[in-house]
Structure formats: structure tokens, C-alpha cells
Backbone:
């Protein structure tokens, strides 16, 4: 047997395992670093924990505001609340009659 023939025979025998090892290496790399790999999973879990913390804070804030609104509904008349909101925001209803006063003629 010549040396060239022996090298070709060994090369042919190594092609299939080489391709298999290359595919296995690619899939292992993709499983670790790819878009859906282990590192991406760790990042997604960290984002999920941050989002859950924000959701918990929002739920607490929602509860606070719901209690405040319920307190307003039980203690303040709707018209008085509307009047106070308009006064604080410096707004008026288009149907309101507005009487302008000078700076030295303040009502309160």
C-alpha cells in the first residue's frame, strides 16, 4: 500500500466523526450562548424578577390610591370635589360664569 492511499483511507474514515463532532460542538455552543441558550435564560430570569418587583410596587401603589379614592367618596361631596379640583388646576367649565376681579379686589 502506498502512503497516499493510506492517507486517503484514514481521511475518509475521519470525515464522518469530524462532521459529527463539528455539529455537536455547534449545538453545544448554541445551547450555551445562543438566543435561547443558558445565558439568555439567566438574563430572562433576571428581567422577570425585576418585572415582578415592579409589579409588586405598582400593586402597593394601586392599593394606596384605591384607599384614598374610597376615602374621598365617603367624606366629600362630588360637587365640592369638582369645585376644589377646578380651583387647584385653574380650570373652568364652559358653562360657568366667570367674573374677573382686579389684583386689589381679591375675594380670599
Residues:
Amino acid at each position: 500500500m502506498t502512503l497516499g492511499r493510506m492517507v486517503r483511507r484514514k481521511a475518509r474514515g475521519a470525515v464522518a466523526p469530524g462532521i459529527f463532532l463539528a455539529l455537536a460542538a455547534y449545538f453545544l455552543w448554541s445551547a450555551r450562548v445562543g438566543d435561547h441558550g443558558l445565558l439568555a435564560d439567566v438574563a430572562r430570569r433576571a428581567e422577570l424578577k425585576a418585572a415582578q418587583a415592579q409589579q409588586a410596587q405598582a400593586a402597593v401603589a394601586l392599593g394606596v390610591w384605591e384607599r384614598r379614592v374610597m376615602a374621598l367618596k365617603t367624606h366629600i361631596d362630588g360637587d365640592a370635589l369638582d369645585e376644589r379640583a377646578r380651583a387647584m388646576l385653574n380650570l373652568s367649565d364652559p358653562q360657568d360664569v366667570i367674573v374677573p376681579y382686579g389684583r386689589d379686589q381679591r375675594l380670599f
